[in-house]
Amino acid sequence: MFGYGNGNWFKALGGAFDALVSAFKTRVLGDGGTYESGCLAAILGEIGQPILDQASLLTTPNAYKASTIYSITPTDASGDLDFSRASTATRVNASGLIEEVASNVPRMDYSNGCPQILLEPQRTNLITYSEDLSDASWNKTRTTITSNAATSPDGTTNADLAECNVSGLSKSSKSSLSYTSGVSYTFSFFAKYISQPRISLSLSGAIFSSSTNIFDIQNGTTISGSAQTIEDYGNGWYRCSVVRTANTTDVSTAISIQFADETTGAGVSGNQVYIWGAMVEQGSYATSYIKTEGAAATRLLETSSTSGLSSLIDSTEGVLYVEMAALADDGTTRLISIVDATGTNRINMGFNSTSGVIYFSSSGTSPNISIFPTGVTQTDLNKIAFKYKANDCAVWVNGVEIGTSVSFAAYAANVFSKIEFKNGAGAFNYFYGKVSALSILPYLTDQELQDLTT
Q1: In a domain, 314, yes or no
Q2: Can you say whether the dihedral through the CA atoms of 247, 252, 255, 256 is positive or negative?
Q3: CA 71, CA 440: separation in Å to the nearest integer?
Q4: Among 148, 157, 294, 382, which residue's Cβ finds the most Cβ atoms within 10 Å?
């Protein structure tokens, strides 16, 4: 992964770095785009001047406008990536706050400190009042809700205060949500400790086999339950999430956010906690927050498909390099491809449906190749390079060559013209994940590939 602290590389760039970044920033701002410098110096420093000098295309998560992700190289607009998402969405911005971005605006997400291009599948928040537990759709038991009592993870005063007003089973429950048998759902909410250290998500009834997951929101840990996570969102806020598969098709009143005492599972009168941002979404992992105000809301699929790149992609030999992480190791195939105009000739790389496996394949030549290296943590930020040349293909991941093929038939010149964040053959295997860098490079030596991916 990028160490974001390689001072020797950074010093080596010197004036060349300054000139490159200055020209990039000037072009972006002159085109009406947004430029964010976050970690750019470190990203370029880690790649290194020798590789930068050879890249025909280099994209980082630092500049964007509606429908466009700007590339640093080439220095004109010919390598900028197209982007689409026909709805609003949220990201964690450079200040660490959740903010909404407009339709078709790419998300440079700072959840991990440095920006990453975030691409997610379509998801719907089934909770109709995600930020208002005082609404009648939330059933309160031994609980008093005070609206707009604290600053939430979006930086505004819209978080609710929940107080146990009578010792015992104290909770806020959501009713009348429909579930389909055999389908996975992810339940999540944000919580902040005041005087109640533990809180639970309870799923009662036959639909989800009556499970309870307990979270320690004072220390940011999980206490009991399964298929659960707790994520630190700063300023004392944690996002708690649970994944369950429905056993039956039904309408349920099963979701309860409740006070959880260490031994009895009940609340203590007077204890308080802040709650915000409740979600129920169909899927096996939590995605970015979707706000609702009286009705379910949907964030639509987002992707990138860019044509007209034939002058930047050498079809006969080269390197496709991506630093990327999957959103989850969820049993699906998620790909990035270089491809011709028809989808016939293509090289796909990405994450395989098999856990811990990455995916590389070629189509349109004979013989085609398929390389499936194992032992990769898909959700880590991996530096991956795929080298292709007649009878000489190799996969490098995080400084190590982990797959090869000597039976590759090279493509003819000027075949590839597109980069797509999906399978190049059609509208499937969309890439859902985070990208810190994408580059098209000439054929590199093993030493150069090791340096690039270390």
Answers
A1: yes
A2: negative
A3: 11
A4: 382
Question: Are 230 and 238 in contact, with CB atoms under 8 Å apart?
Answer: yes
Residues 443 and 387: beta-carbon distance below 8 Å: yes
Whether residue 1 is contained in a domain is answered as: no
Q: In terms of C-beta distances under 8 Å and separation of at least 24 residues, what long-range contacts does 422-428 make, across chains too?
A: 422/303, 422/305, 422/335, 422/336, 422/337, 423/333, 423/335, 423/337, 423/346, 423/348, 424/335, 424/337, 424/338, 424/339, 424/343, 424/346, 424/347, 424/348, 424/363, 425/343, 425/346, 425/363, 426/343
Residue 74 lies in domain: 7-120+302-453
DSSP state of 4: S
Could you give the C-alpha distances from 187 to 119, 154, 155, 222, in angstroms and in order?
Answer: 20, 19, 23, 15
Residue with the two structure tokens 């208002």: 132
Give the chain's length: 454
Identify the residue with better confidence: 50 or 230.
230
Q: Which two tokens stand for residue 308?
A: 């007209």
What totals of helices (H) and strands (E) does the chain contain, helices first? 4, 35
With cut-offs at 50, 70 and 90, classify the pLDDT of residue 396.
very high
Instruction: List phi, psi (to 5°) of 173.
Output: -120, 145
Rounded to an integer, what distance in angstroms lies between the CA atom of residue 122 and that of residue 377? 24
Looking at the predicted structure, is the pLDDT value of residue 9 above 50? no
pTM of the model: 0.94
Same domain, 339 and 416: yes
Consecutive H or E run containing 23: helix 7-30
Which of 299, 314, 339 is the endpoint of a domain?
299
For residues 56 and 143, membership in a common domain is answered with no
Which tokens belong to 242?
């649970």
Q: Both tokens of residue 55?
A: 């890249």
The CATH number that applies at residue 67 is 2.60.120.200
